[in-house]
Amino acid sequence: MAEVRARVKLNVGQHSHIPAEIVSFHGLQDGEEHVALIFNEADKNEVPLIRMHSECLTGDVFHSSRCDCGEQLNECIETMHEQGGIILYLRQEGRGIGLYNKIDAYVLQSQGMNTYEANNHLGFDDDLRDFSDAVLMLQAMGLNHVKLMTNNPRKLNALKNAGIEVDKVVGTHAHIKDGNRHYLEAKVKHGSHMLDMEKVPEKK
């Protein structure tokens, strides 16, 4: 069973310095260094809002035009600054295929494949991510009843199948920009993501 090992305060966020705590764990199954970011830790009697966010170096850090990962992360940070919540930041780059393979997939996407077709062409399944460690992280923090911020039904099913009660699903916006509409449409059509392509957030 994973256990909380250390807490370090930090400031995150795109538009302001938002206080959060970072939590590390030991005893996770896949050997990766997943962490949790805790915002305005809620009353113990409240059901916390959580997000399982898979690492995306190109989107989260370098603001790639090919995806919406960085925008989703910033939206979650802003929301959790206001409401409280926990981001489980999972080291699962490229839906589990790794950074170098994801760059190879970018080349194939430039040739006309969608994100799933590119991964398949490289010999990978649609999505290699496993959320077992996310469940262990929640259990280590004493959480078995949550609200989940996601558009991905796989994440919802992963928690439910592991016995985590999901009180509510909170979707993120469709962050459409030059270069990622094809990617988002593929997530909706192929990945069954619960994403309303008609609702685009106002730019701040």
Please give the structural blueprint.
Elements lengths: L2 E10 L5 E9 L8 E5 L9 E6 L2 H5 L7 H15 L1 E6 L8 H12 L4 H7 L10 H9 L4 E5 L3 H9 L3 E6 L10 H9 L15
Parallel strand pairs: 4-5, 4-6, 6-7
Antiparallel strand pairs: 1-2, 2-3, 3-5
Helix pairs in contact: 3-4
Give an overview in words.
The chain is of the alpha/beta class and 204 residues long. The chain has a single domain (3-92, 129-191), classed as Rossmann fold (3-Layer(aba) Sandwich), CATH 3.40.50.10990. It is built from 7 helices and 7 strands; from the N terminus they run E-E-E-E-H-H-E-H-H-H-E-H-E-H. The chain has helices at residues 57-61, 69-83, 99-110, 115-121, 132-140, 153-161, 181-189; strands at 3-12, 18-26, 35-39, 49-54, 85-90, 145-149, 165-170. A hairpin with an 8-residue loop joins strand 2 (18-26) and strand 3. Helix 3 packs across helix 4 (115-121). One of its GO terms (biological process) is riboflavin biosynthetic process. Pathway: Cofactor biosynthesis; riboflavin biosynthesis; 5-amino-6-(D-ribitylamino)uracil from GTP: step 1/4. Its EC number is 3.5.4.25. Catalyzes the conversion of GTP to 2,5-diamino-6-ribosylamino-4(3H)-pyrimidinone 5'-phosphate (DARP), formate and pyrophosphate. It holds the Pfam family GTP_cyclohydro2.
CA(first)-CA(last) distance: 42 Å
Q: Bin the helical content.
A: 25-40%
What string, H for helix and E for strand, traces the elements in order? EEEEHHEHHHEHEH
Determine the number of helices (DSSP H or I, runs of at least 4 residues).
7
Q: CATH H-level name... which superfamily?
A: GTP cyclohydrolase II
Mean pLDDT: 86
Summarize the biggest pleated sheet.
Answer: 7 strands, mixed
- Structural class of the helices, strands and pairings? alpha/beta
* CATH topology title: Rossmann fold
Specify the CATH class: Alpha Beta
Going by CATH, the architecture would be: 3-Layer(aba) Sandwich
Rg calc: 17 Å
Count of individual beta strands: 7
Strand order of the largest sheet: 1-2-3-5-4-6-7
